[in-house]
Amino acid sequence: MKEKLLLLLLFIIISAHAQNTLKLPDLGNPSDQVLSPDEELIYRKSIRQQMYQYNFMMDDPVVTDYVHHLGYRLVPFSEDPQQNFEFHLIPADVINASAYPGGLVVIYSGLLLETDNESELAGVVAHEIAHVTQRHISRMMAKQKKSIAPLLLGMVAAVAAAQSSSSGDAPIAIAASMQALQAQLQINFTRYHEYEADRVGISTLYASGYDPRGMATFFEKLMQKHRGDPRYQLPEYLSTHPLSVHRVTEAKNRLKNYQVKESQTTGLYPFIKERVRVLTATESDDLKSFYQKSMNLEPSKPEMQYGLALHLYHQNKFDEAKTVLSQLKAPPVVQPIVSVLSVKIAHQLNPKKSLDDVKALVDRYPQNDVVKALMTQMLIKKTDLDSAGLAIDLLRNLLIEHESNPTYHDWLSIAYYNALKPVDSGLSLAKKEHFLGRNYRAVRILKNLKKQQLDYYQLAEIDAMIAQWESLITEDEYNQESQADRRAL
Questions:
Q1: In terms of domains, do 17 and 135 share one?
Q2: Which region holds residue 189: left if phi is over 0, alpha if psi is between -120 and 50, else beta?
Q3: Which of 18, 205, 304, 356 could form a disulfide with 46 if both were Cys (CB 3.0 to 4.6 A apart)?
Q4: Active-site choice (128, 211, 274, 433)
Q5: How many degrees, rounded to 5, is the angle at CA 265 between CA 264 and CA 270?
Q6: How confident is the model at residue 178 (pLDDT cuts 50, 70, 90)?
Q7: 93 is catalytic
Q8: What does pTM read for this prediction?
Q9: Residues 25 and 163 in one domain
Q10: Which of 203, 222, 257 lies at the terminal end of a domain, its last residue?
Q11: What residue numbers bound the domain in which 54 lies?
Q12: pLDDT tens digits, residue range 458-477?
């Protein structure tokens, strides 16, 4: 519990620090102002980069692709279809979701696992989209006080004390401090904002083909589950979207304005939910018993078979995983990720045959970036030149559409290293650092590469990148990295 709270606390501190260091201009009367689109993009980029830097982003290609497409199924039916959004999942056992300036929306894995169907999950995302399109976040940040350094120092001290303390009260103290931080930062939405986001979100949910009851039923479920149980008081400290009986009732009443129609879901949701459950499980979670119990109650649920097979794979029980997966009758929409798991299991049982299996799978799904990314994850763990070469081909193809994805550049650096191409590996590593916003480190990597034997084209490329990225190094970044360099000496 302490580690999870520390993770969430650190993210809030990082977001707060970004707000403080970006130095908002004087916007006049804050009650009537919002951040400009350019300012919103600065915040969004800064927060996203820091989330990557501190490994808050879930980088599983299946989950990230699903969350992205779920969000963008809703965006065209929002009140601002032209608004650019990013949708990410944070692997933390927290029932929460947040929207940030510029259209950055994050969902916590704990919330996804709390939902029972895709319409409930989409309802939460639609609500967050509405906060963005109604400019709630920008208005509050325009009202934001800039001077929060003393509070942040106190929060850092609380983290340090909790890490060194064995007291069971430390997580509670941290949570209380987080509540104070949120109050100071004024990030809790007002009652009016919440009702407006509910109203607009339900409309978006319905127009996009989901069941509009999803939002109301999820809110009601949370109210019932957390009522009167002292164990669930702690999340209330962290809540940025306070619930009330009246709010849930209002949401249910709005449903009377919508004609009942069949909900259109993707069929992926139950499999994604089990994938998230497995990938975020802790050592104390007895997932094998969970899945076996679920399958005894409902043997025909393929998502439970998939979850069990994935769990067994991660437990290195490959024969058992293969047996479970062989009994799975997956719907067509899920077949690519089931096939990937099958190839990964086969690789563990017979590594010599796996490269042919990978090529066959990619040929079967040539337009599926998720398949390419999953296969790349497997290939970069091998050190033979054939695997490295195929990984490089797949990653270069992925980066055509996902040039700013630092994870893919990181993987490409590993693949080039395995292929005995140190210069290309260094270039990819520098690009990773650049897209993480760490331009000082990126330039340092490039300057070190210049010490190697380079051809004319490599030297020209490196010089051009240095010239471009040196101008992006901020004074704060320069001072921090210079101090780190001096400490390392």
A1: yes
A2: beta
A3: 18
A4: 128
A5: 160
A6: very low
A7: no
A8: 0.82
A9: yes
A10: 257
A11: 2-257
A12: 999 999 999 999 999 988 78
Q: What is the average pLDDT across 237-258? A: 64
Give the type of residue at 79: E
> Within this chain, do residues 242 and 389 fall inside the same structural domain, yes or no?
no
Task: Please give the Cα distance from 78 to 204 (Å, whole number).
Answer: 5
284 Cβ contact partners less than 8 Å away, ≥ 6 residues apart: none
Looking at the structure of the chain, the number of domains it has is 2
The answer to whether 102 and 196 are in contact (CB under 8 A) is no
Of 206-210, 241-245, 414-418, 462-466, the least confident = 241-245
- Whether residue 200 lies inside any domain: the answer is yes
**Is 196 a domain residue?**
yes
Cα–Cα distances (Å) from 383 to 357, 380, 426, in that order, read 17, 7, 17
Quick one: 118 and 243 in the same domain?
yes
Q: How far apart are alpha carbons 354 and 361 in whole angstroms?
A: 10
Read off the pLDDT band of 243 (50, 70, 90): low
| Euclidean distance between CA atoms 455 and 469, whole angstroms | 21
Among 48, 19, 26, 52, residue whose Cα is nearest residue 406: 52
User: For 336-348, how does the pLDDT look when each residue is reduced to its tens digit (9 = 90+)?
Assistant: 999 999 999 999 9
Give the per-residue pLDDT at 142.
Answer: 63
Say whether both 253 and 388 belong to one domain.
no
Give the sign of the dihedral formed by CA 199, CA 200, CA 203, CA 209: negative
Residue 88: pLDDT over 80: yes
Element (H, E) at 219: helix 213-226
Tracing tokens 């830097």 back to the chain, one arrives at 53
Tokens 């102002």 found at? 33
Per-range mean pLDDT, top range of 202-206, 234-238, 459-463? 459-463
Question: pLDDT at position 161, please?
Answer: 46
User: Considering 39, 120, 198, 424, which one is annotated as catalytic?
Assistant: 198
117 Cβ neighbours under 8 A, 6+ residues apart = 211, 214, 265, 269
User: For 437, left (φ over 0), alpha (ψ -120 to 50), or beta?
Assistant: left
Is residue 120 packed enough to be buried (19+ CB in 10 Å), middle (13-18) or exposed (0-12)?
Answer: buried
Long-range CB contacts (within 8 A, 24+) of 250-255 = 250/195, 250/198, 251/198, 251/202, 251/215, 251/216, 251/219, 252/213, 252/216, 252/220, 254/198, 254/199, 254/202, 254/212, 254/216, 255/202, 255/212, 255/213, 255/216
**Res 247 pLDDT > 80:** no
CATH number of the domain encompassing residue 400: 1.25.40
- C-alpha dist (Å) from residue 192 to 189, 199, 239: 8, 11, 16
Within-domain flag for 217:
yes
| Residue 166 covered by a domain | yes
Q: What is the pLDDT of residues 403-448, one digit of tens each?
A: 999 999 999 999 999 999 999 999 999 999 999 889 999 999 999 9
Residues in the chain: 489
